[in-house]
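Appendix C: a fully annotated inverse folding record. The material below is reproduced so that readers can follow the format used throughout the book. The structure is listed first as C-alpha cells, followed by the designed sequence.
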C-alpha cells in the first residue's frame, strides 16, 4: 500500500469517528436537555388558585366574606358548578354573594326560608340559573362562606 492510501484511509476513518461522535454528542445533548426539562418541571411550584367570595348589597361589593385557598374545596365548588343543571333565564335580581371561577362570574342568591341556593352566570346565549336544594345547599353555602346557612341574614 502506498503512503497516500494509508493517509486517505486514516482521514476517512477519522472522519467517520468524528461523524459518529457528533451524532452521539447530539443524542447526549438532547437526552440531557429532556432530563433537565423534566426535572425543572417537577421542581416548579404548583400554582395555587384562590376563590374569593364577596358579599353584595344593593348591587355593590361590601366585603370579602371568605377566601377559599384549599384546592380540594375549590375543586368541589367547580364540580358543583359543572354538575348542576343550568337553565336559561332572561333576567335575575337579588344577588347576595359573588365569586369568579376561571374568569367567569357567578352570582349567588340565598333563600334561607327553604334552604336553597340559586346561582346565576352568563353564557354565550345569555344568563343561566341553577338551584341547589336542602342539605346540598347548606354544604355549598358553608363551603362558600365558611359559615352555616342558619346564620344567614338576608
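Designed amino acids, in order:
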Amino acid at each position: 500500500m502506498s503512503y497516500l492510501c494509508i493517509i486517505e484511509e486514516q482521514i476517512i476513518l477519522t472522519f467517520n469517528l468524528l461523524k459518529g461522535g457528533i451524532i452521539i454528542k447530539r443524542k447526549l445533548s438532547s437526552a440531557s436537555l429532556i432530563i433537565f426539562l423534566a426535572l425543572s418541571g417537577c421542581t416548579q411550584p404548583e400554582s395555587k388558585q384562590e376563590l374569593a367570595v364577596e358579599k353584595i348589597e344593593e348591587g355593590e361589593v361590601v366585603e370579602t366574606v371568605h377566601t377559599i385557598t384549599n384546592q380540594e374545596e375549590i375543586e368541589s365548588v367547580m364540580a358543583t358548578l359543572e354538575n348542576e343543571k343550568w337553565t336559561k333565564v332572561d333576567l335575575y335580581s337579588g344577588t347576595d354573594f359573588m365569586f369568579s371561577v376561571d374568569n367567569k362570574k357567578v352570582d349567588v342568591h340565598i333563600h334561607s326560608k327553604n334552604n336553597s341556593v340559586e346561582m346565576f352566570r352568563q353564557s354565550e346565549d345569555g344568563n343561566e340559573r341553577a338551584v341547589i336544594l336542602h342539605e346540598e345547599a347548606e354544604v355549598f353555602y358553608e363551603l362558600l362562606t365558611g359559615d352555616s346557612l342558619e346564620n344567614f341574614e338576608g
